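Batch manifest line 290
LIGAND: zinc ion
JOB: complex structure
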Amino acid sequence: MSGELTRRRFLAGGMAAGASILSARIQGAGQQAAATSAAPDQANWIVDSHAHLKHGDAARTEYSPEVIVDTMDKVGIAKSVVFAMSTTTQRSIEMAERAVKKYPDRLIPYVYALPHYERPVIKEIERALSGGLFRGIKIHVGECTLADYVIDPVLKLAGKRNVPCLIDLGGRYADAKRMAAAFPETKLIVAHMGRYLSTDRNLIDQFIGLAENCANVLLDVSGVVVLEKIVEAVRKIGSTRLIWGTDGPHEKPDTVGFARTELNKITQLDLPEQDKRNILRQSIVGLLRL
Ligand SMILES: [Zn+2]
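JOB STATUS: finished
ARTIFACT:
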């Protein structure tokens, strides 16, 4: 949670200039959607590609699909990619299935891959993907090793099934490089542009460089605090390979305030509107063929 404080402080400082006209418009659309509680209208086109039914924090915090969708309504988010972590692959499947059954038009599930050398979980992942409901795989280095004999079967399956892997690498550039080169058919979405809340510009540059060299690498901008690196990445790899997500829900200050702050992070960037639209929607829509 101390990381969270750092993040809030940083973002608050970075956004002292105030909300842009566009973000005000988006928030207005969100309030409208909340008031009617109806399905999102056309103005409400944002997609959150990174939302947790269960987090990887110390408390292993869980959020109900009701809270996630209520937050989406108030912020103006049309759809969210949801997944659970800090649990088994099987339970991540059950949690996501339950959530999506309740909100089939709003939530898009990823399966959580927790492979172990004694328990590969490939069969469970394969079953989840073969049903067509699950559109991607979440991997977190804090909970599983990226050793080739453990992770490669998962990456290979993702390529075969043409679903992306959203992978939190905790800054492990060498592992990312190996995986991207070994599985060119597998789309790797690098969470947080390499490492959560990183201020290490050299590290971020390495991951942008990886995306420049490997067409199968995309960058998730959630938990990114050096905002000019997002602009730089757009210039180097194009906005269609950058993907927005909240990495929420979070309670600080509350789930709606948190998501709006993450949204404003993109809307206030000095970028053409089309690039913002790609980051906030089109990149993930294209990738998941929504
Ligand atoms: Zn996350």
